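Predict the assembly for these two chains.
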Amino acid sequence: MSQVRQRQGGDNKLKVGEKTIHEEKRKESKTPNEDEETKKKVVVSPGRDKQISNAVLFFLTVSSFITRFWNIGYPAEVVFDEVHFGKFASYYLQRTYYFDVHPPLAKLMFAGVGWLLGYDGHYLFENIGEDYIKNNVPYIGLRILPATLGALLVPIAYLIMIESGYPIITAAFAAGLVLFDNALITQTRLILLDAMLVFFMLCTLYSYIRFYKLRLREFTLDWWFWLVVTGVSLSLTTSVKMVGLFTFATIGVAVLVDLWELLDIQRGLTMRQFRRHFFARSIGLIFTPLAIYLFWFYLHFAILNTSGPGDDFMSPEFQETLHGNIMTFQSHDIRFNDTITIKHKDTSVFLHSHLDKYPLRYDDGRISSQGQQITGYPHEDSNNYWRVKPAIPFFDQERPENDVIKHGDYILLEHVNSLSHLLTHDVASPLMPTNQEFTTISVDDDSRYNETMFQVLIVNGEPDTKWRTKASHFRLVHYDTKVALWTHDAPLPDWAYKQQEVNGNKNNLEKSNYWFANEIIGKNVTEDVQPKKPTRELAFLRKFVELQRLMISHNSGLTKPHPYSTGPINWPFLVRGISFWTKDSTREQIYLLGNPFTWWIGVGALAVFVGVTAADAVSRRRGILPIIDPVRNRLYNSAGFFFIGWFFHYIPFFLMGRSLFLHHYLPAVICSYLLAAAVFNFMFVNSINYPISASATKKKITRVVLTAGVGVMTILFGIALLGIASVFYIFFAPLTYGTPGLDVSGVLNRKWLETWDFHFAK
Amino acid sequence: MEEFRRRNTGIPRNYEKLPSKDQNENGENNKTYKAMAYKPTRPGINKYIDLLREHQDITIPIFFTLLSFWTRFYLISYSNIVVWDEFASHYIKREFYFDVHPPLGKMLVGLAGLLAGYDGSFEFKSGEVYPDNVNYTWMRIFLSSFGAWMVPLAYFTAIELDYSQQSAILVTLFVLLDTAYICISRFILLDSMLLLFTFTTVFCLTKFHNERKNPFSVDWWIWLTLTGTSIGCVSSVKWVGLFATALVGLYTIEDLWNKFGDLSMPKIVCCQHWLARIGCLIILPITVYMLTFVIHFAILIHSGPGDAQMSSLFQASLIGNDFDQNPLELAYGSKITLKNMGYGGGLLHSHVQTYPSGSEQQQVTCYHHKDSNNDWIVKKPREVAWSEDDEIEFVKNGDSIRLFHASTGRNLHSHMIAAPVTTSLWEVSCYGNETIGDQNDYWVIEVVDDLYEKDLQTVRSLTTRIRFRHINIGCYLRADNAVLPQWGFKQIEVTCDKSNNTKDAYTHWNIERHWNDKLPPGPKAKYRSKFIHDFWHLNVAMYTSNNALVPDPDKEDILASTPDQWPLLKVGLRMCSWADDVVKFYLLGNPVVWWSGSLSLVIYLISLTWYLIRQQRKYIDFPSNAQWDHFLYIGKVCGIGWLLHYLPFCIMGRVTYLHHYFPALYFSILMVGFLFDHFTVYLAGKTRHIVFGTCYFLVFAVFWFFKDIAFGMDYPAIEISNRKWLSTWNIVD
């Protein structure tokens, strides 16, 4: 029994990995045998190693630029989502306010490039397939930005592997997988956000690895530098797309594990020192990123100072901060006895009534009041006119007849054409048994006066906020039953001409209860023009919070099915791609599809990794240690880190309700390539460079305990795999670059899966 | 922070007060600082009291059990109307019915009815007054006795978990005085049984855990077997019981993982451990579960409202079924209903409503309810001259036919438009009429096999398995268990599948009803379906209807609540009409119990983190490993038990109600007891008494204040408006 306990205790330590000083000593004493063995295999000296490495890096980088930049000007037409992101760049250059669910950085970068090229943002990228040259857009310049970043993914992947202590062939293998991935090429050659996203994400991984290797030289300048760089890259990733939060999670887990080990008393840190570590990381990885993230929004608001297509998403207060906004010159105070039209905020219909009555009995057998119908109607019509009258019991006689109406005032609404008052009562509405019916009652009939009184409650209103057209959103709450005037996108049957149902919502606080007064009838716009107000100022943080909330809620609201949206489960297996662009005359098309070979290597590596760790756990449990410690630690720490990266950039998509696309998998696929290289190393090299972390002392040379010995066969095998990958890449290149066009057999030859829905297959 | 700074190697200051090691040995497993057993020091105040004290390990539970029966039975017949979901009749009348829950609970309800002499004639409509001949009091008493046994079980479980006696009493009181537990136990509902079996599962598990040092002893076998039986029972009442099963499963996996790593254990012993668990915790519960279905099928031998959920052959074997009127062989002009032969399959159905997307033609679905919209007439293609008055002509294998929907006069139709839910398959709709239409209305009948007949040329009702191949596309008519959204009334989607997979049972159909005036009824045959087939079929059907119980966004269900409201007791549930003259019951927990339960889970989590951090700094908070293990063990049983019974409801799409939280509540109550022990162990005896005494009083006082909502209010609800502690409780309007 005691034997068991001891081993279990040891187990804990082993999980901690290559951290503790004790263990390193232990390993050293253990490894001489293996050392000799591996040394025999060493073919090159460290100095030459460095030269070879640089040569390989150079070669890979050049190839990468070639693959990304080949024929970059083709097609000279708007492709897929360039429609959005090109448009947004134009908006920046025109300084008109727009709304998008993604944070502003990537679009600011496009705008910056456009500005440098002297582009003025005149073109709005309206439709896929529109001609760039005709519209005089410097689209090649815009595309060069993502293509450059996309090309740099290859060297960064290479450096990540080198820094992680893998031999050149392994690093080249990882870089090669990235190099030949058709999906990454397609996605990064166009005016899309993913090049920036993946680039910054890889920078984050790279700088964190650099930082982690310096852990024994804590608080040195280098250490601080890489910590802050990690934070900055993290922040830039998140400023491109909110997916950056997954990168945060990846780094977060690594940092927590690291901190947990620092807390271990055997590390010999005092609580004071530990706190220093803790605060250093929170400064580097929380506060720095936050500040940078906010900075882009500050820039965003500073540039976009003119009213534009994004106005309608924002609150009236926000809109008033924009130049030329409708609020600033078309908003009037509403006075008692004005006649107005009232519009529902969410569904844009007018509050409407006509002389027809509700039918006595509905289809489901329920009975109505048979009163005059109230509906929602989308078009201008005199039946939308309502006169606002004061509710006598609440009306202060001191106030003039035509006083301005304020937040909280009680009113009656008189339907002008039928001379009747709006009323609601405890009768179920036509479509919803839970909600109250609205109807009208003749102005002469005072018997139900209580049921015709409504309170105007302006959103964010104070007691003396004035009720204004356009600018004030309000809820109309019934005095008697406290329901709010409400409507929803559901048509009534033929007896109401399929107009929209209006009813009383018992939950009167919901945002769907918001209405606004559209205009005051008969008030001549020029007559009442007030001196042009200075546009309103709002605190930056308030604007930011409002926009951030809207981004999140609209992002999760993007559920409208798209013909090319796919579920996450399909992605790793490359079940389906996305058609980006087609040209009938030449039978050319761009179809986003990964290189099946590299893509499936990625999945295979994931499976092998999970299998190996599970087998290792089981055999350790039985006291068998199948993997030598340095290799095992490397497998757990380095490959495990990549695995966590893949996991966090992939699994959360399963919980998302929005419609998802294959390109959402690109950050994860890069992680799977890094993992694939680590697994390749584990399987075919079976040794590593160790240790790779800088030692605590400032001595230049780190004593090498282990050098990965790479056999010739391994190198040949790695190159062969990359060779196959390149063949696949070339085979699918016509779909990646959009040229040349393919005949039917050409398309069908490439259609390996029934679900790859290429065009021109017939 | 001060706590961290002290780098600690020796014994921390607190431990001077600890009971010495020897005393500790007295604790059963040397894990807890259990209070010393009472030893009479002052002899002879009264010998009876002494006697009671001496046997307090028996007298205390007996006392609480009596109280428990009192709280559950008190005024049980006060409300003479059907409260909420009360029901019983099907087993008494032996009519086949269908329900989403497994049969054990309902069979016990049936047994209660049988004992009470109920004849099955009353319909049990919610809110109706019980007639004189229904002895609902006895039925309620029978079922609430299940609820009453929860109390002693809670006591003994706490003892098995090594709680002190005071703590065990606290746990018992919490279970005894929770108004929600009382209220739900008093009616003819399944929940009292579900709760009881959840309690027995935890009890057996703790008993088994305490036997772990004597593997393969008689007691060890007894408790292992009982655990298995118990999880079998709890899963046979409601599928929620699977969460309790999962708890036992996780415990077992951890246990086996430890055994796997114990190199000193001979391999053969390790295998024996595995086999014992497989036998008792997998095979045994499944047997229990299936046994309940065997009894279910054995009792329900008459045709009833649930027929349509089952396969045609099963229906034919029920008494009172009229399938024997079917003519044997299918002919042109016959009117038929078609049953899908996949597990959970329904009848081919169409109705006037159209698809909102795709072709926007008339919907075709699979439906389990029998009505005239399931009737189809077999006709020849339009190009072939044929009239109803012609000579009888039988349909042959390989014939092209047109299926004509009898009530709407349209034809079964398919085309290359993606189906609404399973977008990879083609849509099936109803289109055209007798004269209008195209080739897309024609289907080829392919006979797969026949149960009795070797000759596969003709199509026989009930026994022949057929497929319908679309003549143009070559796809096969298929219905699996994909449910259409609200616009399709949650019926099952029908599609056309391009892949020609002969083995795919979802493309197999049989003729269930068959009418043809020109043909005589077929010969009488004894149809018999296999049990295992019926068992699967019924379970798949239960699963499908359970999934279809999603909240309807357009309908506000005042009874439903969401999981996030439960732990803080933000909602109650009105169990009956709220009129002034009705005896009203409000399903609402005892706030002290619920709130302290949820709080205890949070406190446990915080203390766990605290101890872990301190361990990393090598502080010694637990004098022995066994105590730390016990701390973790409680966390696993109570904490993970709570999570397993709570989290799934957050993920589930189906509509949820307050009573779904009741099993989880038990785990939080157990946690309260543990934390009280954990934090009061260093207190002097007297202080301890005061702490526990205050809690006893508090929970009792609050119970007394709220007792009427569980015992029934015969006065207007407005009189208890002072009980409305939270604005979200709809106890008064």
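Chain B touches chain A through 17 residues (CB under 8 Å). The first strand of chain B starts at residue 335 and ends at 340.
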